[in-house]
Amino acid sequence: MYILKHGIKKDPVRRWALPDRIFFGYGACHILAGVFLRQPPLPGFYAERIIPAEGFSGGHAYVTNGIITFDFHGYSSRENLLAHHCKGWAGRSPGWHCSLERVDFDLLDTAALNQRKMLGPDQYLQDVRPRAQNFIDRIDHHTAAERAFKTVFWKGCRPDGSTIGHWVDGRA
Q1: Is the pTM of this model over 0.70?
Q2: Rounded to whole angstroms, how far apart are CA atoms 148 and 80?
Q3: What does the pLDDT look like over 56-78, one tens digit per residue?
Q4: What residues have CB less than 8 Å from 94, skipping those under 6 apart?
Q5: How confident is the model at residue 166 (pLDDT cuts 50, 70, 90)?
Q6: Rounded-to-integer distance, Cα 159 and Cα 24, Å
Q7: Residue 81: CA atoms inside 13 Å, Cβ hemisphere, count?
Q8: Is 76 exposed, middle or buried (0-12, 13-18, 19+ CB in 10 A)?
Q9: Could you tell me the strand order of the sheet in which 74-77 lies?
Q10: 100 — phi, psi (to 5°)?
Q11: What percent of the chain has pLDDT over 90?
Q12: How would you write the chain as a 3-class SS string?
């Protein structure tokens, strides 16, 4: 797990200078998710948030269709994203735990974000929406989503979330 140097998130110039993956992984993940949902490259996705328990850091927003996710890592299985995130924060902060929430507000609305202690897209050094769109545009979404689906143990899963098969271990 990458750890930002102290003070970077509070310094707009240093924060803006971060490489895209770090920038969108540490403080602007909600903007990436919001831009994704404005013109989704794949159907059936919605936003979720990992909300750390009171007194802990480690929140994260991403988009998912319930099976795979998209965030600053690209596409991965939802299970893998949650396990990786939780393991990283729990290893760094003993007692760390969280809840999951389906996002029911506009991830690009500054007032809604500020209510939840997140920056709006116009509160970074520059408008972050074009940067997020450029990040999204560099990805071959269909190929990357197919690759993520191959890591899921659901036989016959399609990128749109529909199924044509059964659980590999025999569950219905």
Answers
A1: yes
A2: 10
A3: 998 999 999 999 999 999 999 99
A4: none
A5: very low
A6: 23
A7: 26
A8: buried
A9: 74-77, 68-71, 60-64, 46-52, 98-102
A10: -110, 145
A11: 67
A12: CCCCCCCCCCCHHHHHCCCHHHHHHCCCHHHHHHHHHHCCCCCCCEEEEEEECCCCCCCEEEEECCCEEEECCEEEEHHHHHHHHHHHHHHHCCCCCEEEEECCCCCCCHHHHHHCCCCCCCCCCCCCHHHHHHHHHCCCHHHHHHHHHCCCCECCECCCCCECCCECCCCC
Tell me the residue length of the chain: 172
Task: Give me the residue label for tokens 């809840």.
Answer: 99
